[in-house]
Structure formats: C-alpha cells, structure tokens
Amino acid sequence: MDIHIFRDHDALDEHAANIITQQLLSVPESVLGMATGSTPIGLYNKLTEKHAAGQISFRQAFTFNLDEYVGLEKSHSQSYYEYMQKHLFRHIDIPTEHIRFPNGMAEDLEQECQRYNKMLAEQPIDVQLLGLGHNGHIGFNEPDEELVQETHVVQLEPSTRQANARFFESMDEVPTHAITMGVGSILKAKHILLIVKGEDKADIVYQALKGPITTQCPASLLQTHPRLTVFLDEQAGRRL
Ligand code: GLP
C-alpha cells in the first residue's frame, strides 16, 4: 500500500488528477471507476481543467460508477448520475454511450445488478477511485456480518442517510436503498486510488488502513489489494 499525505487539497487533487491523466495517456481506452461524494469534486475540477487545456481526452475512455440511489430519476438533482454530469461528464469529451451507471429506477433491480455485473466482467476497471464513508463504507457497502461480492441492492444505514441528508430538502427525501458495486467487484480493479479528506475521517482511516481486516469496516478489505494508492490530507492522516 502506497500512502501519501498532502498538506493542502490542491496538491492532493492535482496528484490524483495526474494518476488519471497518466493512465489515459498510456491507455486511451482505459476503464475508470468513478466515485461520488464531496471528496472527489476537487479532482474532477482538475480533470475538467486539464481537459479544457487540451492535456487529456476521454474520447476513448469508459467509466463505471460505483453506486446509485434507488428511486431517483437520472435527472434528479441528487442522483449520482446528475452529480457526475455536473462535476465531470458535461465538461469533457467522453461519449455518453461509454458511461456505465447502475439504474436505480429499473423495474427489476436484481436483473439490473446482473446487467451491471456482466458489463464489469467484460470491461475490467483499470483505475478505481474511492472515497470513504464515516463508518468505513466504500461505494455503499455498509459494515455487516457478511459483505456481498458483486453488484447488489443495499439498505442504507441511518448514519449514511443522515450524512447524505445535507444534499436533500428533508430526511424523508433521502433514499432508503441504493445499488452498489460489491467489495469483490471493487477489489478486481487493477489499481485502486482511495482519497480521504478531513479530521472527521481520521479514526476511520486508521481503522481501515491499520486496523484488523473485517467486514465491520468494508474499507479494511482494501488492505488485501496488491496495488492500493491512498491520498490523504493532513487531517485525515493524523493518526497514521
Ligand atoms: C457516499 C458515497 C461514497 C462516498 C462516501 C463519502 O455515501 N456512496 O461513494 O465515498 O459517501 O462521501 P464524502 O466524500 O462526501 O464524505
């Protein structure tokens, strides 16, 4: 595991953007695993800038997003699809048909999970970006006795709904379920880039990277990955 601690967010986001840039420069048709949340916004801004400056093209690239809420239309302001459009896709040259997303509005959610698994099997992810939930979740894989390997429907923890409530008008509007890639699917990525920012994540960063490998902290399974890069700000890396 390769851990880097950055003094400021700008340097962290720049280095993270360089990893994606290098990947696309060496393999233009790379498959990128994308994450949502507040953490990668700075990185997506950097990629947008590099694209505008002509330093990077996504024309041949493919993306898979980790997760999506169940029951929100793609066009809903808080859907992860809309998040990606707003923070990255609308500003770059990726063809729409190269964007892979779980459909949280599918009538048959089980079938939708199978469709996503099939696509993931056909197009292995080269670089998977990840953020970290306060309870150690990755994607929407919540702490549990057992973790599901592949894409599945998950009931969101009250603490996760609470954490994400800031983006919705009221708690009632926060979806109760989501579709997420499983931890097994995430671990299949050739390279994983975990980004964590903020003092409030210092304890969970420590548990995830230095604590026991346990399904009670899904991110701790990342310790088993042969190519894990971790970018932290000083606050998130305080306990390491
Ligand atoms: C969300 C997402 C995760 C994300 C995490 C942290 O619930 N499903 O993919 O990594 O929470 O979000 P943030 O970066 O806003 O702290």
UniProtKB/TrEMBL annotation:
Keywords in alphabetical order: Carbohydrate metabolism, Hydrolase
Enzyme Commission code(s) on record: 3.5.99.6
Record keyword Hydrolase present: yes
Molecular function GO labels: glucosamine-6-phosphate deaminase activity
Main function: Catalyzes the reversible isomerization-deamination of glucosamine 6-phosphate (GlcN6P) to form fructose 6-phosphate (Fru6P) and ammonium ion.
Active site feature: D67, N135, H137, E142
Family annotation (Pfam families): Glucosamine_iso (PF01182)
Name of the protein: Glucosamine-6-phosphate deaminase
First-tier enzyme category under EC: hydrolase
Protein encoded by which gene: nagB
This protein's pathway: Amino-sugar metabolism; N-acetylneuraminate degradation; D-fructose 6-phosphate from N-acetylneuraminate: step 5/5
Family: Belongs to the glucosamine/galactosamine-6-phosphate isomerase family. NagB subfamily.
The reaction(s) this protein catalyses: alpha-D-glucosamine 6-phosphate + H2O = beta-D-fructose 6-phosphate + NH4(+)
Residue intervals of the Glucosamine/galactosamine-6-phosphate isomerase domain: 12-225
